[in-house]
Amino acid sequence: MPGMRMPGNFYLVGLMGAGKTTVGRALARATQKTFYDSDHEIEARTGARIPMIFEIEGESGFREREAETIAELSKLQGIVLGTGGGAILNPINRNHLRRNGYVIYLRASPEELYSRTCHDKNRPLLQTADPLGKLKELYEQRDPLYREVADLVIDTSQQTVNTLLQLLLKELERQT
Ligand SMILES: Nc1ncnc2c1ncn2[C@@H]1O[C@H](COP(=O)(O)OP(=O)(O)O)[C@@H](O)[C@H]1O
Ligand SMILES: O=C(O)C1=C[C@@H](OP(=O)(O)O)[C@@H](O)[C@H](O)C1
Ligand SMILES: [Mg+2]
């Protein structure tokens, strides 16, 4: 189904390693929408990488930048937005997402998320002695919030990015 046109915005939520950036980019290409990634946008505006922002301003500084960025990006039309895994912690972000687009929760088990993220040093929250334990804790905390905002929950376990894209296109064509 290449080049399918669908109305509105698609927003991707889920934990670190869920595939928001990767699947989001593929979904944008397939639906002829513009892709944005809130983390990339924050880095471009700040002129610093995420680990550096966390180091200098702490998580709270990063969250402020994230909220400003999501408020602005959610005003755009015809986009696919990959959010950062913690964006849904802020109720204002949750409202922007719910109000202005169709929200897709990419779900995966903490073990799978760990296997996808363990070689990457760019996620400060996982630079701990026990990253799998941290992912389990974040899953418990955040899974209800992802579900609260989601119009669609997709289980990404054991699915390739391409299979997920095909699944998503079918489901979105049916629902939107
Ligand atoms: N369904 C999938 N199966 C296997 N690997 C995946 C899948 N989705 C994403 N990945 C890989 O996992 C890593 C994290 O993906 P990314 O898109 O950055 O996740 P997020 O933006 O949700 O943190 C990347 O190396 C990506 O290629
Ligand atoms: O889960 C989180 O709190 C975070 C997820 C990251 O994005 P990804 O979910 O794209 O890895 C990034 O925003 C930052 O490191 C914090
Ligand atoms: Mg990402």
From TrEMBL:
Alphabetized UniProt keyword annotations: Amino-acid biosynthesis, Aromatic amino acid biosynthesis, ATP-binding, Cytoplasm, Kinase, Magnesium, Metal-binding, Nucleotide-binding, Transferase
UniProt entry tagged with the keyword Mitochondrion: no
Binding site for ATP: G17, A18, G19, K20, T21, T22, R123, Q159
GO cellular component, one term: cytosol
Predominant subcellular localization, coarse grouping: cytoplasm
Cofactor, free-text remark: Binds 1 Mg(2+) ion per subunit.
This enzyme's EC code(s): 2.7.1.71
GO molecular function: ATP binding; magnesium ion binding; shikimate kinase activity
InterPro entries cross-referenced by the UniProt entry: P-loop_NTPase (IPR027417), Shikimate/glucono_kinase (IPR031322), Shikimate_kinase/TSH1 (IPR000623)
Catalyses which reaction(s): shikimate + ATP = 3-phosphoshikimate + ADP + H(+)
Compartments it resides in: Cytoplasm
Leading EC class: transferase
GO biological process, one term: amino acid biosynthetic process
This protein's pathway: Metabolic intermediate biosynthesis; chorismate biosynthesis; chorismate from D-erythrose 4-phosphate and phosphoenolpyruvate: step 5/7
Residues given in the record as Mg(2+) binding sites: T21
Pfam family for this entry, one: SKI
CDD domains attached to this UniProt entry: SK
Top-level taxon of origin: Bacteria
Subunit structure, interactors included: Monomer.
Cited function: Catalyzes the specific phosphorylation of the 3-hydroxyl group of shikimic acid using ATP as a cosubstrate.
Name assigned to this protein: Shikimate kinase
Organism, scientific name: Deefgea piscis
